[in-house]
């Protein structure tokens, strides 16, 4: 029997867990078959997810068949199918009719979209967002001042010009977002970009509020101040300029003006 992960009878417990989860005929003392099945599925999902994250299964490699997984964990094929559906929803496996499941390559897009949707649907205020943006974007600005290349600085400058010339609110917001994204790219740490993408929905709402209230020129002027510090490679000034920019955004959300 040959798979990306080989399951020999003598090693199954070690590769996929020290022992079967529990007999599929066992029932919980506090629930019936439905409750028990959910618990079994969750346990299979948790164990397989941990092993995928730990690298025990190669990206694009095949998982064992339903029958082998069921025998290893001591659960029915139905439990394994439900577990595969959950792992697919989490972006960890690909499931095709008539084929064994395959491990997906790490792709942040699924998690970013899911968490971004949660943030937009959750009970989060735009002021909550600003409290997160302060440490995040202040550090982005500081690192951009240290790491930005001349082409990146030029592109940020062009984006500010586009924002200044934009005639509609949507164009102004798009250019505003683009400037912050470029700043994150210049910081040269991909995690910053992922975090900003996750917050993108809330950040667009925030800009709709602030730019519509106090106008585009205020944001453009603030961006220019940040960029001047970045161009000079002045880490302290870039951080300070970004914090002032975000403080102005907070004042705009409160309906105040400096």
Short description:
By secondary structure, the protein is mainly alpha-helical.
Mean pLDDT score = 82
Residues in helix, %: 55-70%
Specify the number of helices.
12
Unreliable residue stretches: 1-16, 22-33
N-to-C span: 72 Å
Order of strands in the sheet with most strands: 1-2
Order of helices and strands: HHHHEEHHHHHHHH
Q: Which secondary-structure class do the elements indicate?
A: mainly alpha
Supply Rg. 25 Å
- Beta fraction of the residues? under 5%
Secondary structure tally: strands: 2
Tell me, briefly, the overall form.
Answer: elongated
Q: Could you describe the largest sheet, including whether it forms a barrel? A: 2 strands, antiparallel
Secondary structure blueprint with pairings:
Elements: H1 12-16, H2 33-53, H3 66-73, H4 77-89, E1 93-94, E2 102-103, H5 108-121, H6 126-147, H7 150-165, H8 169-186, H9 190-198, H10 200-214, H11 216-231, H12 235-253
Antiparallel strand pairs: 1-2
Helix pairs in contact: 2-4, 3-4, 5-9, 6-8, 6-11, 6-12, 7-8, 7-11, 8-10, 8-11, 11-12
Question: Notable features of this structure?
Answer:
258 residues, mainly alpha, two-stranded antiparallel ribbon, 12 helices
């Amino acid at each position: 029997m040959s798979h990306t992960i080989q399951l020999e009878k003598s090693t199954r417990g070690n590769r996929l867990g020290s022992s079967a989860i529990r007999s599929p005929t066992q029932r919980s003392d506090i629930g019936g078959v439905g409750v028990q099945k959910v618990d079994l599925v969750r346990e299979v999902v948790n164990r397989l997810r941990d092993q995928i994250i730990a690298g025990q299964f190669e990206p694009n490699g095949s998982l064992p068949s339903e029958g082998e997984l069921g025998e290893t964990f001591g659960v029915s094929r139905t439990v394994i199918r439900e577990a595969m559906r959950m792992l697919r929803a989490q972006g960890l496996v690909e499931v095709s009719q008539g084929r064994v499941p395959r491990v997906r390559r790490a792709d942040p897009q699924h998690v970013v979209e899911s968490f971004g949707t949660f943030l937009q649907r959750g009970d989060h205020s735009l002021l909550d967002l600003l409290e997160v943006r302060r440490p995040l974007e202040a550090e982005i600005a500081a690192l951009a001042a240290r790491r930005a290349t001349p082409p990146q600085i030029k592109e940020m400058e062009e984006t500010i010009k586009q924002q200044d010339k934009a005639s509609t609110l949507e164009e102004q917001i798009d250019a505003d977002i683009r400037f912050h994204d470029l700043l994150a790219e210049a910081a040269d740490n991909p995690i910053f970009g992922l975090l900003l993408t996750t917050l993108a929905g809330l950040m667009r709402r925030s800009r709709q509020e602030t730019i519509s209230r106090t106008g585009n020129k205020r944001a453009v002027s603030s961006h220019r101040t940040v960029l001047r510090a970045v161009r000079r490679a002045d880490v302290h000034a870039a951080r300070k300029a970004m914090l002032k920019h975000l403080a102005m955004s907070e004042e705009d959300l409160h309906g105040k003006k400096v």
